[in-house]
Amino acid sequence: MDLHTLPALSVLSDCVTIVKKDDVKFVRIIHEKAIAGIALLGAHVVSYQPNGHDDLIWMSNSAKFDGKTALRGGIPICWPWFGRIAAPAHGFARNSEWTLLEHRENENGVIVSLGLPCTESSLAIWPHQFNAILNIEVGDQLKVTLDVTNTDTTPWTFSGALHTYLHVGDVRESETRGMGAEYLDSLQNGKLCHGGELLIVTDTIDRVYTKPQQRIEVSDKVKQRTLSIENHGHNSAVLWNPWAVGAQGMADMDNDGYLNMLCVESTLHADSLENGHTLQPQQSYQLATTLSVRTNDK
C-alpha cells in the first residue's frame, strides 16, 4: 500500500510521520532499511517494503477506510479470540482505535509501540480487564509482537492470531513449506486431515495446521523471492485463500485479488473461548511473527 503521496498531518521524527487516508490515520515509516505503514485502526500493519524489494504485505485495492470496517489485507490483529467462536468475528482489537505509545529509531530501523486499553466498549463485548500492546519492529525484517496482560482480579481465557496477508506474484505459482502435514480443514467442519510437506494452492483453502515448524517459507516463482514467516507463542498456523468464489463474495476484495495473496498466520487457536489459553491475573503473553525475504537463486 502506497502512503508516500499522502501529506503529513504531523512529523514525529526524521523517519516517522502521521498521515490520513479517508477516515483512517496511519503511522508512516520511511527509513533507509525499509518503509512501512501502520493504521491506528486495529494497530494494523498495511505495508512493509524492505530496501530493494516490492511490498511483502498484500492489501486489497478495495479495502474500506471508513474508520469502522476492519481493513482487508495487511496484518489484522485477531484478539481476544480468533475465528467465529464469539462476536464480533476475530474479536474487537482489529476494529478498535489504538494509541501510539512510543516510537524510536536508529541506524537499524524503527520501533513503534501501540496500545489498546480496556474500555467500557470492550467490557460490553468481553467482560475482562486487560492491557494490550503491539510492538512493530521495522528494519531488514519485520517483527510484530502482540503483548497482552491480564489486569483483572480473576483468570481469563483467550485465543488470537496475527493474520498476515502475504503479497505473492501468483499464488498458483507459489510453493509453501514448513506448515507441517497435519491440519484441521475448516471447509470440512474442522476435519483432521493429512497432506504433504509441500503446498501449492489450486483452490479455496482454510486450514489450521496443528504441527507447524517455527519457520514457514513461501517460494514465489513469479517475483523470484522467498518469504519467510517465523512465529512464536503460537500453537498452530492458519493458511487461507478464498479463491475466486470467495473473492467475488467480498465487497472489499477485487474479484482477482486472491491471485496475489496468501495468508500465513501465527495463531493461538482454540475451538471455543472456554478452551482458549488461560492467563492468570498480572500474567502476560506474547504472540509474534517475523517476516523477511530473500531473492531466489536464478
TrEMBL record:
Xref: InterPro entries? Aldose_1/G6P_1-epimerase (IPR008183), G6P_1-epimerase (IPR025532), Gal_mutarotase_sf_dom (IPR011013), GH-type_carb-bd (IPR014718)
Gene3D superfamilies linked: 2.70.98.10
Biological process GO terms, please?
carbohydrate metabolic process
Q: Which GO terms describe its molecular function?
A: carbohydrate binding; glucose-6-phosphate 1-epimerase activity
**Principal EC category:** isomerase
Pfam families in the cross-refs: Aldose_epim
Q: Would I find Isomerase among this entry's keywords? A: yes
Q: Where along the chain is the active site annotated?
A: 163, 265
Q: EC number(s) for this protein?
A: 5.1.3.15
The record's catalysed reaction(s) read: alpha-D-glucose 6-phosphate = beta-D-glucose 6-phosphate
Superkingdom is Bacteria
Keywords, comma-separated and alphabetical:
Isomerase
Which residues belong to the signal peptide in this entry?
none
**Family that this chain belongs to:** Belongs to the glucose-6-phosphate 1-epimerase family.
| Official protein name in the record | Putative glucose-6-phosphate 1-epimerase
| Native organism | Vibrio gelatinilyticus
The opening ranks of the lineage are: Bacteria, Pseudomonadati, Pseudomonadota, Gammaproteobacteria, Vibrionales
